[in-house]
Design brief:
The protein is an alpha+beta fold. The protein has 7 helices and 8 strands. About 35% of the residues lie in helices and about 15% in strands.
Length: about 220
């Protein structure tokens, strides 16, 4: 194992533990992966807690997708593989069952093509548009098919009655972005029915232009 991979494994486990310690994920829910320098992946094992991941036991895959070490991976491998296949710049993928995001996914009247309301600039800057995908049974390979169907146009999706999934260039970027998604979902729930003042279309367009945000129509 190279020193770079050792650091990557430690970073993955440290970030996962931080998400767990702050209540962003719970129990044995969620999964996380990162791309290695040789084009392979390290992946959290199935049935494990973000609070207790062991760097030495992470599932290891080579660049051809063959498992070469570690424990059995998360049953959501199809979801992770779909993001890596369609977003070549993706260096990490995080999937959580974070409470506010799940709650938002169940509510009527949300736009499935742009599920997060433009309350602050930060979710727009870190996530772009977030697509709401329908409910799939956990572990169903159809989740991966749904992500592939987006053609790489979205860095983040929200699975109905399940939770968010975010791809980022680095582990840190992916974790920061999924936390921003959860925080925005919480704000959306807190302000629902109160007629809050949102960012205007012009303000959103300015963010998209200045920060060169992916913003497909």
């Amino acid at each position: 194992m190279t020193p770079a991979e050792t650091r990557l494994r430690d970073t993955l486990c440290d970030l996962a533990a931080s998400l767990f310690a702050r209540g962003v994920t719970h129990g044995s829910t969620g999964n996380i992966s990162a791309r290695t320098d040789d084009g392979g992946l390290i992946v959290s094992p199935t049935g494990t807690s973000f609070g207790r991941l062991d760097p030495a036991r992470l599932a290891r895959f080579d660049a051809e997708g063959r498992q070469t070490g570690g424990d059995p991976p998360t049953k959501e491998m199809a979801l992770h593989a779909a993001f890596y296949a369609t977003r070549q710049a993706a260096g990490a993928v995080v999937h959580l069952h974070s409470a506010h995001s799940v709650a938002l996914s169940t509510l009527p009247g949300i736009d499935p093509d742009d599920v997060l309301p433009p309350i602050t600039p930060y979710a727009i800057m870190q996530l772009g548009r977030v697509r709401l995908l329908p409910y799939f049974r956990p572990g169903d390979a159809a989740m991966g098919d749904a992500v592939r169907g987006l053609g790489g146009k979205r860095a983040a999706v929200l699975l109905a009655n399940h939770g968010p999934v975010v791809a980022g260039r680095t582990l840190e970027a992916a974790c920061n972005a999924i936390e921003e998604l959860e925080a925005t979902a919480r704000l959306a729930l807190m302000t629902r029915g109160l007629s809050p003042r949102m960012l205007t279309p012009d303000q959103v367009a300015d963010l998209v232009a200045v920060h060169r945000i992916e913003w497909d129509t």
